[in-house]
What we know:
Bound molecules: NADP nicotinamide-adenine-dinucleotide phosphate
Order of helices and strands: EEEHEHEHHEHEHEHEHHHEHH
Strand order of the largest sheet: 3-4-5-6-7-8-9-10
Shape: globular
CATH topology: TIM Barrel
CATH architecture: Alpha-Beta Barrel
Number of helices: 12
Helix content: 25-40%
Number of strands: 10
Radius of gyration: 19 Å
Amino acid sequence: xxxxxxxxxxxxxxxxxxxxxxxxxxxxxxxxxxxxxxxxxxxxxxxxxxxxxxxxxxxxxxxxxxxxxxxxxxxxxxxxxxxxxxxxxxxxxxxxxxxxxxxxxxxxxxxxxxxxxxxxxxxxxxxxxxxxxxxxxxxxxxxxxxxxxxxxxxxxxxxxxxxxxxxxxxxxxxxxxxxxxxxxxxxxxxxxxxxxxxxxxxxxxxxxxxxxxxxxxxxxxxxxxxxxxxxxxxxxxxxxxxxxxxxxxxxxxxxxxxxxxxxxxxxxxxxxxxxxxxxxxxxxxxxxxxxxxxxxxxxxxxxxxxxxxxxxxxxxxxxxxxx
Length: 323
Ligand SMILES: NC(=O)c1ccc[n+]([C@@H]2O[C@H](COP(=O)([O-])OP(=O)(O)OC[C@H]3O[C@@H](n4cnc5c(N)ncnc54)[C@H](OP(=O)(O)O)[C@@H]3O)[C@@H](O)[C@H]2O)c1
């Protein structure tokens, strides 16, 4: 496992981090706690030292599972990032919305205290706001909450999770100099952070956490025309209607690029994200030990050839399946 520094912080994070949305269950209906715990343990044994979770993932369940695992690895320095969910439970943040309805100061503090309990830790390495709207960049609510939590030693660093497919809606917040990391969708289909967000993060020494590297599973090749998910699982909507067919067409074209540089689609997808120098870590969701092992093996320091990097640019695809 290779490690990269998170922006200007002192944290050296494994290039492959653990995305812990799926292990929370709920919107990922096919989760199984025993399997998830095994996956977490295996990831740590393979050098993963960064886990990304959120208060909202299974309403604390993901954080609690991580808390159990942290206890049995107390001899290792594992960095945990979590998130404060919007008080009004509206994803994504709405333009024109009042931050006092979404992230009031005391609510940020209370949710953080609950996350500390769920995780069983005294301090959170990185606390993130789970939705963002750059109109809030000058607001006092988050500023005053961050200041208090930092002063009381409850949080080391702060960041934001940037709106799906709208990476530039974070540039003003980065300019405040008050956040150390952004979490953003960056994958072979959505290459948009390369235009403005990544150069800004490099200029300001802000860390980049890449989420959804597999486009919720399509970039692993797992989605076929026949794939179904339980009704309550968010992927029923994400891959609904004719979207599976659209995905299969795109993935078939990508398969033509597989060779000695990347033998599987998931390897290609991870290598694509790690190839950008602005990226600090990528956090695939992985509830199965075999996926943990495959993903960790990609962190070997090898860059993409210029030919493959150029070829991948042609596969960018603008759309929003979360809507
Ligand atoms: N708004 C936000 O802040 C936000 C939103 C979305 C995600 N996130 C964060 O980003 C993380 C990653 O995103 P995600 O989990 O939604 O989606 P993702 O990483 O794009 O895809 C996860 C899917 O890929 C599968 N997978 C993983 N490795 C594989 C491999 N080597 N071969 C085949 N399949 C593989 C997983 O299967 P198994 O799980 O069955 O192993 C799961 O079905 C989340 O867990 C969360 O921490 C944050």
